[in-house]
Amino acid sequence: MKFFIDSANLEEIRQVAEMGLVDGVTTNPSLLAKEGKGFKTTIQEICAMIDGPVSAEVVTSDNAEQMLKEAHIVAGWHPNVVVKIPFGPEGMKAVKKLTAEGIKTNVTVLFTVTQALIAAKAGATFLSNFVGRVDDLSGEGMVAVRDTVNMVHEYEFASEVLVASVRSPQHIVESVRCGAQIATIPFKILAQMYKHPLTTSGIEKFTEDWNKSGLNFD
Ligand code: E4P
Questions:
Q1: What are the tens digits of pLDDT across the range 164-185?
Q2: Measured in angstroms, how far is the CA atom of residue 141 from the centroid of ligand 1?
Q3: Is 93 annotated as catalytic?
Q4: Most buried of the four, 51, 108, 179, 199, by CB within 10 Å?
């Protein structure tokens, strides 16, 4: 499974780049607004740190022509930029054109397998299925992910399923169980995935026993 980091925070991205485990980055207008730095500068700095797809989102959602204009601007910033397109009829027209031009796309705010099917048929590179926002409303966000993974396999689409709106390590457990190709993970959740009290106590005990033993590496 590929790990993307869901962040526009350059310090977080620098830290995950050092971990060497992160395959790509997703940003969105809300994450960028939180950081308050320039859109282009932030995306280019991220591209300099991570060798993989970096999603930059267009802000128009109801006019394919304008979406294409914005898409060409962000795609010109770096070869690794993937254009993030909000799902909808105009967005899918834009995805179809961008795919024909060889520009990679990440279709975002997907909640159902029928939406994902349309996006896959339009040629989306990544299908961003949001789970946390459904769970927040007492739904089961992973149901659509499971259906979408099966749909992509069944019809042999080239699109990859990207689990987004991740709120806990349990979402990653479930993503693994259903065979999703990618999860985009907030920094805090990635840090939590390293932790287990038995790992901590196990390491402490090994260290303690070693220190008492008088053994060394000679
Ligand atoms: C990533 O591509 C999405 O924009 C992001 O995961 C949404 O997460 P949220 O529901 O926590 O805002």
A1: 999 999 999 999 999 999 999 9
A2: 13
A3: no
A4: 108
